[in-house]
Known about the structure:
globular; alpha+beta; about 525 residues; about 55% helix
Amino acid sequence: MADTKREIERKYDSDDSRLPDLTRVPGVAAVHDRGVTHLDATYHDTADERLAASSITLRHRTGGSDAGWHLKFPVAPGVRDEIRAPLSDTLPDELAALVRSRVRDHALLPLVRLRSDRDVRHLVDADGRLLAEVSVDTVHAERLTGTGGTARWTEIEVELADDGDPAFLDKVDKRLRKAGVRPSASASKLARALADTAPPGTRTAVGTRAPATAPDAAPRQKRRSRPAGTPVTAGDHVLAHIRAQRDALVELDPAVRQDVPDSVHRMRVATRRLRSTFRTFRTVLDREVTDPVGADLKWLAAELGVDRDQEVLAERLRSSLAALPDTLVTGPVGHRLGTWAETRHAGAHGHLTGILDSPRHLALLDRLDALLADPPLRPKAAARPDKVLTKAVRKDLDKLAALVTRALDLPPGTDRDLALHDARKKTKRTRYAAEAATPALGTPAKDLARDMKSLQTLLGDHQDSVMARSTLRELAAVAHAAGESAFTYGVLHGREERRAELAEAALPEAWSSITRDLRPWTT
């Protein structure tokens, strides 16, 4: 069974194995010598170093107190989440799954072996509480593939104790710098090993090698190579937005598998943004290429929605129940609601992890990579972004206006509910289009995205009420069949009806206020 540890550390280059006197660090009462540990770690990656390209490390290590498999994801500079699994001859399935969005169908191979002699010191305060662990590591690196070589170096590593104050590392840093010790030029041992043991002719001038990695490696040159630097043309801006959403899909995959709060929602939003970009900016990208990708994105968004919609609905019903006076709660409503939510979530999450492992999903990621490597640009992609992107966003906005007007003309009821739901979906698309255009169009697009978000919230509350009432009717029927009172479900149903009425009543003024802000888009 894997467990996760937040690792906060800093690394320093060392010309020798000596440490300065760290008792002079403020807060340190003593430095305890913990002896020398011998570590033997084999790092695994694809042949084209896809994990290293994302600053992810996967290793099998013996020696020390935490021998086993270690998978590290970057969180921030000097901060990583380390997921650990027990020692085994083969990579545990649970760790393999967490790198699948990056590895896809590429084999993981033993790439580099690092053998280290680690001389450990514990910095403790006056109460004997551990503040940080400082080690001097003498490292021997050996590349296990190709014609790479070996390398040796010594470095100092300072790792903050669990639940420690990160500011303490600044104090240690100040002391080390005063003693002439400087921060390491490499982010990790693996990064230095890959650079120093790279085959001849593959290192850059600064001693690092750019791996032929993951998504955008080896682009074909039939149409146009991937834009570099600041976006200039309409095509540059659209592709930059697509690349950011593709990256989000890949990076959120491990979080979704680990059931991290809000991760499903964020992945679903990235999926929808991609699909909206393809549909809105069809004058920039060839639909013959993007439509099939869009179909797969629609499928993925629907699968993600099974879990996400359940999560939102459960939280809404729990909050509504908690707001009721005790006198209006009859029967085991809370228990039944909790059982319903937990059962649905467990089934939905298991289904979702299967979707992320499916050939269709992995093929979708490959197709997004291929689209970015060889973008299907149309002639207007080379034009100025202001005219092309403005026209595309305006078309979405015109369609939204027609849908809102139609919904407002309908009487309350099922037809209006459906019309408002259509308007909500178009609001999202217009918001995503404005967000994609903001780097090029500036304040007008930013303001439009803000207005669309506000409208989306209003229409979303209405749609959530529609879904909540449907679920409450189902739960009431089950409770009634079990001989329980259905009274409370009726009370909650009535309150949801009122919430929907308030949303519908607020819509005309909200839309009128938004249209007053749309002059830059209607002239």
